[in-house]
Write a structure and sequence with these properties.
binds guanosine-5'-diphosphate; alpha/beta; binds magnesium ion; 257 residues; eight-stranded mixed sheet; 16% strand; Spore Coat Polysaccharide Biosynthesis Protein SpsA, Chain A
Length: 257
Amino acid sequence: MGKKLSIVVPTFNEAGNVGELAKQVAEAMKGLDYNIWFIDDSNDETPGVLEELCNNDKHCHYHHREGEAQTGLATAVIEGFNMADGDFLACMDADLQHPPRVLRPMYAAMLSGADMCIPSRLIKGGSDGGLNIVRKVISGTARWIGKLSLSALRNISDPTSGLFMFRKDMLEGADLRPVGWKIMVEVLAMCDYRLIVEIPYEFQDRNSGESKISKSATIDYLKQLTDLRTRGRNHDSVLVTRWSPDFTKSMVEKYCP
Ligand SMILES: Nc1nc2c(ncn2[C@@H]2O[C@H](COP(=O)(O)OP(=O)(O)O)[C@@H](O)[C@H]2O)c(=O)[nH]1
Ligand SMILES: [Mg+2]
């Protein structure tokens, strides 16, 4: 039987982006089995836009959270992981900063046998062009602190991004605690896996709306790292492979023609 991909997309006031995202995902995943799970905490017109989108596109599902004990980015992503029914799960931002065309090579990496695929802005063929200098420095510092604190991040070139794909069964027995913003760090520290593939991608400017990153995100991240230093698994035997742009292309032709 064929495999299926579920793409989990956390949304907070992204009315101007979700339709375009669904359209671009459909192009990227043409001929492959996929669905999208929007987990929404918006307080604007986004829920109505999602409702209509999901009525018109059977690949799309949404869950709007209101008055729930937990809101916030990380809890949304974990809730989406639990609801989604794919063999593989992806996490992707709604604002098109993660260009949906990267999903197909990510999926090829999974079909080739990877446990996890982490696209990188920082390897040959990638670009972080969408970031201004302040965000570049913040994001570089976050990476540096993360790699010093956690061995699971050490060999990953872009470990603090919110774009990744993995086998759903990696979640079995993994105690993911949704703190703050960096959900992939939690997955990298707490799940059991052997092979990670990195592929290059070009980070984009935000399509519409504005960034929701909060002032407390840095503190949450540092708390999370401290906590994971004691809770995290040992990942000494993990292999991280980097695919060049040309090799990535050839693997898409092989696995997702
Ligand atoms: N469900 C949910 N999604 C959120 C929340 N905060 C941010 N997001 C979504 O998380 C993604 C990344 O947020 P963004 O503001 O673009 O962060 P930035 O790219 O780091 O500036 C976007 O899809 C947001 O809509 C939240 O509290 N709940
Ligand atoms: Mg963004």
